[in-house]
Amino acid sequence: MSSILAIDPALFARAALVFYVAGLLARDGLWLRILLLFGTVFYILYYFTIGDTPLWDAIFASLMIGAANLVTLIRILVERTTLGMTAERKALFAHFPTMTPGQFRKVMRAGQVRTVDQPEQLVSQGAVPMSLYYVLEGPVFLERDDQRIKMQSNVFIGEISFIQGKASEATATVDLGEGARFIEWDRKRLYKILDRSQPLSNALTALFNRDMSSKLTQSFPSPDRG
User: Fold this and answer.
1) What is the rounded distance in angstroms from the CA atom of residue 72 to the CA atom of residue 60?
2) N or C: the chain end with fewer CB closer than 10 Å?
């Protein structure tokens, strides 16, 4: 402590100014927050050493600013990293390359992973799907116009209806075989989540586009799977 008190307080103020200016010039939000946090630390040291007694009001204000900045910094780190995700969630996240880890977490709040013990119908042609699905593991079958085919897994089911709107009917029937594993999203909850975040909505739309392009290259009768 005595070594800090021996330092010229002006040096702390200059260091704080350098970090603040560098932070405001940073184009990346993460570095902005990190540099501003360092600047706040040096301003606290300045207020602590500038007078015969510390400027407690200024120190308290700087602490509050630093705390608010730290909370946002942690949010940014959570948004950008898979820190805290289980191995299973990390494996699921690999299926969503257009999303950030934070966006994936938000989307999964409306979803659940399920495994079927017996054949199950996901969507029925002519009916409005109540959910959006992503099949992780098959078998999965599509039926339309008396034609039935086996599809590859890692595909969305019901995305066309989801994009077109809440009252849009499925254009095909999709069934899952025993042992199939998939993610199911409640459409109403997912719509609400997407309405609150345009970047997330864009990321999911980009994922739909990748999925439909993949279906086209696999020579399916139609890229529309309900």
Assistant:
1) 19
2) N
Q: Whole-prediction pTM value?
A: 0.71
Rg, Å, the chain Cα set? 26
DSSP letter at 169? P
Q: Which residues of the chain are under the pLDDT cut of 50?
A: 219-226
| Gap between the Cα atoms of 54 and 77, Å rounded | 33
Q: How far apart, in whole angstroms, are the C-alpha atoms of residue 83 and residue 138?
A: 29
Sheet holding 147-151, edge to edge: 120-123, 173-176, 140-144, 147-151
Rounded distance between C-alpha atoms, residue 45 and residue 35, angstroms = 16
- How many Å apart are CA 152 and CA 106, to the nearest integer? 27
Helix (H), strand (E) at residue 123: strand 120-123
Reduced 3-state DSSP string for 12-72: HHHHHHHHHHHHHHCCCHHHHHHHHHHHHHHHHHHHHHCCCCCCHHHHHHHHHHHHHHHHH
At residue 215, the 3 state secondary structure works out as helix
The 10s digit of each residue's pLDDT in 77-116 is 888 888 888 898 999 999 999 999 999 999 998 899 999 8
